[in-house]
Design brief:
The complex is a heterodimer.
Chain A lengths: L2 H34 L1 H9 L3 H28 L11 H31 L7 H32 L5 H30 L1
Chain B lengths: L11 H28 L1 H6 L1 H31 L10 H28 L12 H33 L3 H28 L1
Helix pairs in contact in B: 1-6, 3-4, 3-5, 3-6, 4-5, 5-6
């Protein structure tokens, strides 16, 4: 390959990816400005353990629903599932499994955050508070992620867009945005109940 | 992440059984970057602008790494990729990835600072434009270099060991970059502020 061709290729690759990365940047900035608000920094200060679990909580959204998206995408390509919400056994199983995974791992993260701070002899919020927050946040993100992911993937697929190219950006963007908002919602619920 | 072992298995038990150990292991690793945030809590809570950068630093390393890994993996499958100094495919992809990172992290620095100026958003701020831009750009480019090194070496390892990079490289690179993003941000922030 000659130098001009290599440069042209690099420009093409850049153009192909810059739009998707900009969408992800916008989602991340929304999440970031939510985390940076005064209400949220005060919440982090008054619930020790919440900042500790934040990266794991956000990253698991990507892993759980990225896997669901990859599975749905493969299922659509193989003709195993139809691009609509229905009583299809495979679709229901895939959604139920991602729900179980999402909730279990959320609760695990809340408990682990408490355990780590306890083991290090640091201040921490109560176990019930941290697990309560991640449980509520995990439940709410599951509903939004499952509905949003399936809705957008089905709509895209019907319009001839390869779901493989949609899943990654959808999961990152929705996961970041709703992940932080619902963590805050979790804190509000725990404060009201507690 | 592709649910490899259970691709033909659509039972709830099968999917959960395959994924749960991976999810648990990954979230334990992720607690590492959470620990860095927690240890530097005062640095971050006193400068909320740094917190604005956190989700993008978590997501973008994985994004850049997965775009590069998928491209290298596809070239490898097509037989158009060779691990030799004369092959320009890797170099072309690496240059494009670094240019994408430069664009995204320059935009992140400027926009994150801009957001702290909007009263309605009520972000405490605590950093100048110059500081925000420097921290975002330097840590972003460092993360991009890490993502490039990880993607290329992981693809090379999959290639030498005869593993399909789609099943190995991409999940590994994405998750490592997720974890290292916050760590790099924290290191750069402590060095420059």
């Amino acid at each position: 390959m000659t130098v001009p061709t290599a440069v042209r290729d690099a420009v093409r690759i850049y153009k192909e990816s810059v739009a998707i990365l900009t969408v992800s940047l916008a989602g991340g900035l929304f999440a970031g400005s939510f985390i940076g608000t005064e209400g949220m920094t005060e919440t982090f200060a008054s619930y020790p353990g919440l900042l500790l679990l934040l990266p794991a909580f956000l990253a698991t959204r990507g892993n759980v629903y990225g896997a669901l998206g990859a599975r749905i995408s493969t299922g659509l390509h193989q003709g195993l599932i139809e691009p609509r919400f229905g009583r299809d056994a495979r679709l229901i199983n895939a959604v139920a499994a991602s729900f179980v995974n999402g909730i279990t791992v959320s609760v695990f993260i809340g408990a682990m955050s408490w355990l780590i701070l306890r083991a290090l002899g640091r201040d921490s919020a109560a176990l019930g508070e941290l697990v309560g927050v991640t449980l509520v946040a995990g439940l709410l993100t599951s509903f939004v992620m499952i509905a949003g992911l399936l809705g957008l993937v089905f709509a895209g697929y019907k319009r001839g867009i390869d779901p493989d190219n949609l899943v990654g950006p959808i999961v990152t963007t929705l996961g970041d945005m709703f992940g932080v908002v619902f963590l805050y919602a979790g804190v509000v619920v725990v404060e009201v109940i507690g | 992440m592709t649910p490899t072992g259970s691709l033909g298995d659509w039972s709830v038990r099968g999917i959960v059984g395959t994924m749960m150990p991976i999810l648990v292991a990954l979230s334990v690793l992720e607690m590492g970057s959470g620990y860095v945030l927690h240890e530097l809590e005062r640095t971050f809570l006193d400068r909320p602008t740094l917190l604005v950068l956190v989700p993008v630093m978590i997501a973008m390393g994985g994004n850049l790494g997965s775009v590069l890994s998928s491209r290298l993996s596809t070239r490898l499958h097509l037989g158009t990729l060779e691990f030799s100094p004369r092959d320009t495919t890797i170099l072309t992809n690496v240059v494009a990835t670094l240019a994408l990172a430069a664009t995204v992290f320059a935009a992140l620095g400027v926009t994150a600072y801009g957001l702290t100026l909007i009263p309605v958003v009520s972000i405490g701020g605590g950093m100048t434009l110059r500081e925000t831009f420097t921290v975002s750009f330097v840590s972003g480019m460092a993360l991009a270099v890490v993502a490039v090194v990880l993607s290329v070496s992981a693809t090379y390892v999959s290639y030498r060991m005869g593993l399909d990079p789609d099943d190995t490289t991409i999940p590994v690179v994405t998750n490592l970059c997720d974890i290292l993003g916050v760590v790099i941000l924290a290191v750069v922030a402590s060095l420059t502020l």
